[in-house]
Amino acid sequence: MRKAAVCVLTMLLLLTGCKAGAGGDKAQELALAIRGEYLALENWTANCTITADYGQRIYEYGVTSAQVGDDLTLTITRPETAAGISARIAGEQGKLEYEGTILETGPLDGDGLTPVSALPALLKAAREGYMDSCTLEETLMVLCRDPERRPGEGTETSLWFDPDTHALLRGEIALDGFTVIRCEIEDFVR
Known about the structure:
Layout lengths: L1 H14 L3 E2 L3 H17 L2 E11 L4 E11 L2 E8 L7 E5 L2 E5 L20 H11 L2 E6 L3 E6 L9 E7 L6 E8 L2 E12 L1
Helix pairs in contact: 1-2, 2-3
């Protein structure tokens, strides 16, 4: 019961900045419902295509991922030269497993954002991010950003959800107005 109360209070505090866009109050209500579901989410699987834009170079990866409790596994499926590389994260501990291949593209920001950490970063924003605006058209789009900064400054995370199933469909992470991560998600199963 205490965990549920903490989740509800957290949701209310983090949603207070959500301004209505298209779809108004319905978008805010849906965003709040989805946040509650994602806060309670312990197990999920997904397939996604992650594009990391470093400005001078762009990398694209296919990734399958699964979370069971605190254990998260991400396995690269594309490009073929890196297929099979897996990252296993248990709590705060991470381990990269490979057979003679090292996949290192470098961080995209000062906080260590990489293509491998992109999907967990999107899910963290869905659970904890300050919701600046919500719009509901064919999908629910939620923009999360630092409320202390101006729009376009710092890290901004845009999330798109299916309004019926609440599955995460897509996410983007922008740094100072430049999109560094695009993630197209297929088969998100909760």
